[in-house]
Design brief:
mainly alpha
Length: 539
């Protein structure tokens, strides 16, 4: 990686952007108006859900009724918690956390997706717990007593049976009461097995129980061990035999967030094994899948073209490239993807690159956030005003094309702009969140992400996971006098002795070599903001 790219990622993670320079042609007042419009968008949908659907999982925004789509446990409320915190809505955040802590339970006879339950429910609970339990966030709830953390651990325990496979790659579904059904399919997606590390890893570090982090890392290693000779992975795999059942390699459906969590697991946890895998996987993806400026699907073994299709889930990729410091292809690809949005007012699920038309059978837009997410990251990296223009266009499309009686509707056909009576929980967890962050950044940011006590890694569901000492320094918190220790009440006089003892006992600490970091001179712990016990402010 070039020195320029290293510098760029340093800037992104360390948060060293100048906050006084606005994009040319966009005033702070205009940015504030757009930000406020997005805020109103959130509350139109959130209030619609709470009035007409709560405590069911999701809102049917045309008919104004609720429906259970995952487990029947107030999914949209859980998914919205950290967005409420980001909007500084202390009252709604506190009352929502209180209701969930008192009423939610997972001792139910429901078979759920391991992937969706992890990213939406487990991630939502953990993110809200980390905000509600920490004075530094400004959203500390005085009466909160780790109820969400206990719920998160209970939920994770109920999903652990899914990982009991010969390959370590989990089943796609699990029953929360009875475990894995004997007739459960042995086929799962690469994303489904490889997008669990952030949530389970955070849980391990909060509970001092390594099992959650271990099983999800084993799943990633199980997938990577079965990569092709050219370092590509397929879309679906048999979790018992380890044989690929669909050998199409791409960056979209069924694979997308596998790449995302490789890099983000390194950034959040500092585990260099994830970094090494990401470097190899990314290099192969750019070599075999990148058809400038688009991405195609190829056979994972031969790299023969299989499918010249822009899949809407691919739109997260430019944002990931920003985090990896590879800006030039990110800019090109985002421009191509956004051209599809401008053509139809939304991005269809599939756009054929051979005919440059919407792919038959893939005409819908289910309020996906990925293009907006990449727009936010590219604006943050470049401050180019065109990304604010893109954000304004996407906001306008949502307001005029998707807004309906009680919330925002899926678009069933992007050519005809037909509405469908459904609103996924991720609309409030991600789509609105990234739009709001985009315009708040231009207005002069004043939020938990930009000005809070920590730098945050966003999960694939848009949940905020902080690079706090307890999470990001668990492998190195005893490396120097006064560093983070699990017992923060210790004095500096006994810190060295305490840490020495802890280093010998910790299940997390593994002696490893120290190969060169991706970012020279910038180990993961350099992302941490705040103070270490035993050190003075000047130190």
């Amino acid at each position: 990686m070039s020195a320029a790219k290293k510098c760029l990622l340093l800037i992104l993670i360390a948060g060293c952007f100048s906050r006084e320079i606005l994009a040319e042609g966009v005033t702070k007042e205009e940015a504030k108006q757009l930000r406020d419009e997005v805020r109103e968008m959130f509350y139109h949908a959130f209030d619609g859900y709470m009035t007409h659907a709560f405590p069911r999982d999701e809102l049917r925004p045309l008919s104004c009724v609720g429906e259970d789509t995952l487990g029947g446990y107030a999914l949209t409320l859980i998914d919205s918690l950290d967005t409420l915190a980001l909007l500084d809505d202390k009252d709604r955040f506190a009352s929502s956390v209180d209701w969930i802590g008192k009423n939610l339970q997972f001792d139910i006879n429901k078979t759920v997706s391991v992937f969706e339950t992890t990213i939406r429910v487990l991630g939502g609970l953990l993110s809200a717990h980390l905000i509600a339990s920490d004075y530094n966030t400004g959203m500390k709830i005085p009466s909160y007593d780790d109820e969400l953390l206990h719920l998160a651990e209970d939920l994770a325990q109920r999903m652990l049976p899914a990982f009991d496979t010969p390959t370590g790659i989990p089943f796609g579904s699990v029953n929360l009461l009875h475990g894995v059904d004997e007739n459960e399919s042995k086929i799962t997606s690469t994303a489904g097995g490889g997008t669990l590390t952030l949530e389970f890893g955070v849980l391990s570090r909060l509970t001092n129980n390594p099992i959650y982090e271990q099983v999800t890392k084993n799943a990633v290693l199980g997938l990577w061990a079965r990569r092709s000779k050219i370092n590509l992975v397929g879309a679906h795999i048999d979790v018992f035999s380890g044989e690929w059942t669909q050998k199409d390699a791409g960056i979209g459906t069924s694979i997308d967030s596998f790449y995302e969590y490789l890099l983000k697991a390194y950034l959040l946890f500092g585990d260099e094994e994830y970094l090494f895998i990401f470097q190899e996987a990314y290099k192969a993806a750019m070599h075999y899948l990148f058809n400038d400026p688009w991405y195609v699907e190829v056979n994972m073994n031969s790299a023969a073209l299989v499918w010249p299709l822009f899949n809407s889930l691919q739109a997260f990729w430019p944002g990931l490239q920003v985090l990896a410091g590879d800006i030039e292809p990110a800019i090109k690809t985002h421009a191509a993807f956004f051209s599809v949005w401008k053509q139809y007012g939304f991005t269809p699920e599939g756009f054929n690159l051979a005919t440059f038309n919407v792919q038959q059978g893939q005409k819908s837009y289910p309020l996906r956030p990925e293009l907006i997410e990449s727009t936010y990251w590219l604006y943050k990296a470049t401050r180019n005003p065109k990304y604010l223009d893109a954000g304004r266009d996407m906001l306008t499309s949502l307001q005029y094309g998707a807004r309906c009686t009680c919330g925002y509707c899926h678009i069933s056909d992007v050519e005809l702009h037909q509405k469908d009576d459904h609103m996924e929980s991720f609309f409030l967890a991600e789509t609105v969140k990234y739009l709001w962050l985009l315009f708040d950044l231009a207005a002069g940011p004043d939020n938990l992400v930009e000005n809070g006590p920590y730098k945050y890694i966003f999960s694939t569901e848009g949940h905020l996971l902080p690079s706090s000492p307890q999470i990001s320094l668990s492998n190195e918190h005893c490396s120097y006098l006064g560093a983070y220790c699990r017992n923060i009440n210790q004095t500096s006089d006994n810190a060295k002795q305490k840490c020495s003892k802890e280093k010998n006992q910790s299940k997390y600490l593994v002696e490893t070599s120290s190969p060169q970091h991706l970012f020279s001179g910038f180990p993961p712990s350099g992302m941490i903001k705040g103070f270490c016990p035993g050190l003075t402010y000047s130190q």
